[in-house]
Amino acid sequence: MADDFHKSVQLGLKLSKRIYYGKDPSMKPPQTPSSMEKSSSEDQLLLPTSPMVYAVVSNPAMIDNPDIKSYQPYVHGRCKPPALIPLHMYGVEVEVDCYLDMAFVHLSATWRLHCVDAAQKCDCLLAIPMGEQGSVLGFEIDASGGSYLSQLVKVEDATDLDGSDKLEYGGFVKPNIFTLKIPKVEGGSKILVKAKWSQRLIYENGWFLLKLPFSFPVYVTPGGKISKKQKILLNVNSGTNAEVQCKAATHPLKELKRQVGKFGFLYEEEINTWSQTDFEFSYSVFFSDIHGGFLLHSPSSNNIDQREMFAFYLFPGETQNRKVFKKRVIFLVDISGSMKGAPIENVKKEVLAFLSTLNQDDLFNIIAFNGDSHLFSSSMELATHEVLKRVSEWISIKLLPEGETNLLLPMKQALEMVSHDSSSMAHIFLITDGAVENERDICNVVQDYCATKEKSPFLRVSTFGIGSYCNHFFLQTLAQIAKGHYDAAYDAGSIAPQLQRLCIVSSQVILSNVEVDGLSYVQSLTLYPSMIQDLSYGCPIIISGRYEGKLPESLMVRGTLADMSNFVTDLKIWKEKDIPLDKVFAKAQVDALTAKAWFMESKEVERQVAEISMQTGVLSEYTRMILFQTDAWNQGPDAITIQGSMGVGFGDLEKTAENLPPGVIVKAPDTTEFLVNAATGYCGKLLDRFCCMCFIQTLSKL
Q1: What's the CATH number where 89 sits?
Q2: Which of 609, 589, 593, 576 is nearest to 99 (CA)?
Q3: How many domains would you assign to the chain?
Q4: Could you tell me where the beta strands, DSSP code E, fall in 217-307?
Q5: What does the pLDDT look like over 34-47, one tens digit per residue?
Q6: Is the peptide bond before 183 cis (omega within 30 degrees of 0)?
Q7: Which stretches of 36-157 are assigned E, i.e. beta strand?
């Protein structure tokens, strides 16, 4: 899908050269640098790196300046798929609210359909790139074709709605780029978009990093002497009673307020061209040692769950002299046929890179699996220079993708290999791009091992999914059962950084088997996620929960340090009215409950997920987004547009069995589309070299 998007924008930029802006040079917008056109990585540049709106053009004859008629010769033929012409932006304001490790982004921006004749109408496409683990929360759109508002409904309710062109009006170009079609906008009119989404703050070396897609291509800046203002309002509530340190941001900020644990900044500027840089801002909560807190929040009267809410956090602190647990590491690497090419090469590179960071007294092994399992060694090996050299050679020979996927056998082998050792922490890293039929059996096997603590009290299973054909909720369930971490990469380019981060976060453990004393006194306790993970240098513990009853006046957190000594510290408890815990943890709650619903095959939990999804606006597997028209003059059923499934799904056994590479869509060739695409490519090259009349005369002879 991303490739089609690239090509459509590429064609749209070529067609936009037809637009005549008059004799005044100042009216012509900035042009794309010639270096971009010649760049070998041009396609990558054409994916949106900021909020964008595109004209969806199937008929090139409608392309014209709505203010100045150019009377260009008629263009025969149609664009299939439609060309996407980036629209000029006239203003952008963003408000970001950060709570704990989540950011909520509110965008308000205006675009103009500057490239379509004033007498014509065309659809427009809104594209919203989001940051880390972004989740769309809602839209309000005001355009000449109508005003629209988004809403989530249950899947079964969505099927009863009489929407036009179902499944055609929205979706993801990539997991972090959401698109939404705006129908029948008049040429020359403006489009006001208000969008909301959430994204997770990246935690690196003790700092929380907010990275907001805010790099606009130069060609969305309109020409002429018009006021162009960009604005970012940033509010941070760290959820702590500690001093917050800030790093320099990418854009000049003015401090508006500062309190203990809280602050606010403003960036506002009149500009000639829109921002060419993503907005980045980092802050750190300073603690000299391991420090925790416990926030309480009462639900609103309309909340479907009236139990009390809480958030528990535990930070590793600034002290770097605490020991990290000694490690026993096993990589389970999928080498089925679908892993050929970039996926397996990226995995091999990162596995070797991580093994090179192990201490020489750490132990490791690798089990590659397809239809069979292939062990580097029959027992765990010390991470010495000689063994690492030998495993590098083994990887280059043995990790050759072919065959099907069988996961249960290698998982049992790995569990048996790391059991019966309580002197170090066992890490099993599962890396796969496929789904298997016996996934619940695998979860049960791991659950049985974890229930028997004497076998391995420090067993952790972390999972990494590649592409959309693996069952990501199986991988999340497996990680939750064994107190591990889960991550995913949906394209080959993101495998290396995501897998590297997973390995670092999972392995740099300084406090294990974390428990909160006092929670046993309350009733109906639920944690999200269900198990408390370990505390590592690479990631603080931040979880939420609900309960009934009364908490004791004081709470304590305890765990085991790397030297096997016990750690105990008090937790500060306070009521936090300014942090909407139900919204901050909604995405984590939806994901955890969806994994539970899949594992238990529970319709009741599915209904619970749908209710939370509709109340908080977080997309789920059991809800669908609708976009309905709010104009008083159009309230009929045709005003409703249905969005398809926005979730990651539960894997695809058929495509796994066919060994299709991650993300490949098999489509039967269409003769008409082939001819139109061929003609478009040929004509596109000629358009750059001939005037319109010569071009038409040449085509008539052809």
Answers
A1: 2.60.40
A2: 576
A3: 4
A4: 229-237, 244-246, 254-259, 262-270, 279-285, 291-297
A5: 544 444 344 456 89
A6: no
A7: 52-57, 83-86, 88-99, 102-112, 121-129, 135-143, 146-154
